[in-house]
Structures are given as structure tokens and as C-alpha cells.
Amino acid sequence: MIEEQEFIKLYKQWYNPIHRYIQSRGLSPEISEELTQDVFMAVWKYLDTLNTQYNVKNWLYTIAHNKVIDYHRGKAWKNDTCLPISEDGHFAIGPDEMYDVIEPVHIALASMSERERNILVQTSLFGYSQRGLARTYKVTTRTIRNNLASARSAFKSAYREEVAS
Q1: What 3 state SS string does the chain have?
Q2: Rounded to the nearest 5°, which phi and psi values hold at 4?
Q3: φ, ψ for residue 91, nearest 5 deg
Q4: Per-residue pLDDT of the chain (165 residues; tens, 9 = 90+)
Q5: Which of 25, 53, 110, 111 could form a disulfide bond with 158, CB atoms 3.0-4.6 angstroms apart?
Q6: Of the residues 79, 111, 130, the one at which a domain ends
Q7: Residue 13 belongs to what domain range?
Q8: With contact defined as beta carbons under 8 Å apart, do 134 and 141 qualify?
Q9: Statement to judge: residues 86 and 144 lie in one domain
């Protein structure tokens, strides 16, 4: 287990290399900065589980790699839904057009099974981890991942059908 002072040392030593690694994955400096901060927030969160006898470098790069993958997954999901979402994750429409977007979303969500809807909302809107949901539902992470893929597919189909009508 490492102490706060050791975390500060770790942060100073690895911040720039991790930031460069993330930016080398084709992300903007702003997104790279944000994801680098997310890496070190995760490090801080799991600080008590870190055993410094193991390779800290591998641990940090694994977290960074996973943050980049999560970012791209989220971006692909947002782009693939046909929802007007800006790069910063907010709806890119005015208040007058909001109802035209919200009604099809509501109808699409209502057409899904309760479990699909819950998993989709808990991960996409509230940021719950798949691992945490697996514990909640008492299933494997793979089952949650499959349920989430199915939920996303069901939502996309229902949303596109509703928008087309």
C-alpha cells in the first residue's frame, strides 16, 4: 500500500508519459488531458490495492489503455444513436427542439425489456461500471456486457424506427 506522498511522486513521474501515450492514440490534447486525469483519479481511488512490488508502469498503462477504449466506445455509441450529441456529450439542440428528441427516446426505452432498459440507463447515463452491475445482478461481467450490447442494439432499432415514423 502506498501513501499520499508516494502518490504525488507517482503522479509527477508518470503524468507526462501517460498523457503522451493517450494523445498518441489520436485524441485531441483536451480529451487526452481529461483521460489522463481520469487515469490518475482511478489510481487514487484504488490506491490501497496497489502493491508497489509489482510493475506500476504496466498498471498505469493498462488503466490508460482502458480509458481510451472506454472513450471510443462511448463516442461510437453516441454517434451511432443518431441523437444530436455534441463532442462534449451534451445535446446539441435548443430547448424548442428538445421534445422532438426526448419523445422518441422515451418511446424507444419503453419498448425495451426492463432489464435491458435498466442496464442501458445505468451504464450510459449514470456511469455505473459493468463490473458493479454484474455484482448487483449476480451475474458475470460478460453477461452484463452481452446484455448491454443487446440493449444498445434494441434501443438503436427502436429509436430509428420511431424517428422514421
Answers
A1: CCCHHHHHHHHHHHHHHHHHHHHCCCCCHHHHHHHHHHHHHHHHHCHHHCCCCCCHHHHHHHHHHHHHHHHHHHHHHHHHCCCCECCCCCECCCHHHHHHHHHHHHHHHHCCCHHHHHHHHHHHCCCCCHHHHHHHHCCCHHHHHHHHHHHHHHHHHHHHHHHHC
A2: -60, -40
A3: -65, 135
A4: 457 788 888 889 999 999 999 999 888 888 889 999 999 988 888 877 776 666 888 889 989 998 888 887 766 545 555 555 555 555 555 666 666 667 888 888 898 899 888 888 888 877 888 888 888 899 998 999 899 888 888 888 888 888 777
A5: 111
A6: 79
A7: 4-79
A8: yes
A9: yes
**Could you tell me how far CA 62 lies from the centroid of its own chain?**
15
Of 70, 77, 51, 47, whose CA–CA distance to 131 is shortest? 70
Look at residues 19, 60, 25 and name the one whose alpha carbon lies nearest to residue 37.
19
C-alpha radius of gyration, the chain, whole number = 19
Tallying the residues shown for the chain, one arrives at: 165
User: Hey, what's the cell of 20?
Assistant: 503522451
> Which pTM was predicted?
0.48
